[in-house]
Specification:
It is a single chain. The mean pLDDT is 91. The chain has a domain of 123 residues: Aminopeptidase (3-Layer(aba) Sandwich), CATH 3.40.630.30. The radius of gyration is 16 Å and the shape is globular. The chain has an eight-stranded mixed beta sheet with strand order 1-2-3-4-5-6-8-7, with helices on both faces. It is of the alpha+beta class.
Length: 180
């Protein structure tokens, strides 16, 4: 693994800081309609918006308002996706979790492993009491993953996000840290 800050290690993965060196790999994922279909972005058409996204996420991390990691396979050192907290509300011990994987890494348990580790890390590092997830209602795989990890559906947020020119409903899920 190149010289980057490793944050979390799981059985098969490293969750590490995202850097501009990741632009090309992330462009490959974030330009793929099958990967971005349920994300709140349209597929990127060039690497410039990927660089801008990485810079923005790094700035939010420095301000302690968000955190986004690349997910790296320990066995190969390959970046397979990203995960993190889209926002962190320190005062209320709350954060919103998000994740994405390159298509060829789907259905192998990587997202579950990464999200579970990120939840544990968030409880320890940020003393999180509540973790939220906003999911496109059609994203059955993500809903299944969240339910497996103990998230409960709280409701439907109608026309919550604007993606391109269309408004999109999202389902709100939450997990509460009741084991303090």
């Amino acid at each position: 693994m190149e010289n980057r800050k490793q944050m979390i290690k799981t059985e098969r993965l490293f969750l590490s800081e995202m850097t501009l060196a990741d632009t090309e790999v992330l462009f490959g994922y974030w330009s793929d309609d099958s990967v971005t279909r349920y994300m709140n972005i349209e597929p990127f058409q060039s690497m410039q918006p990927v660089e801008e996204m990485i810079r923005m996420l790094r700035q939010l991390e420095m301000e302690e308002k968000a955190l986004r990691c690349v997910i790296i396979l320990q066995s190969t050192g390959e970046i397979i996706g990203t995960c993190g907290f889209n926002y962190i509300d320190h005062e209320n011990h709350r954060a919103e979790i998000a994740y994405d994987l390159g298509k060829r890494f789907w259905r192998q348990g990587y997202a579950t492993e990464a999200v579970r580790a990120l939840m544990e890390w968030g409880k320890e590092s940020f003393k999180l009491h509540r973790i939220e997830a906003k999911v496109d209602p059609r994203n059955v795989s993500s809903i299944t993953l969240l339910e497996k990890l103990g998230f409960l559906e709280e409701g439907l947020l109608r026309d919550y996000e604007k993606i391109g020119t269309a408004y999109q409903d999202v389902k709100l899920f939450s997990w509460l840290n009741t084991n303090k």
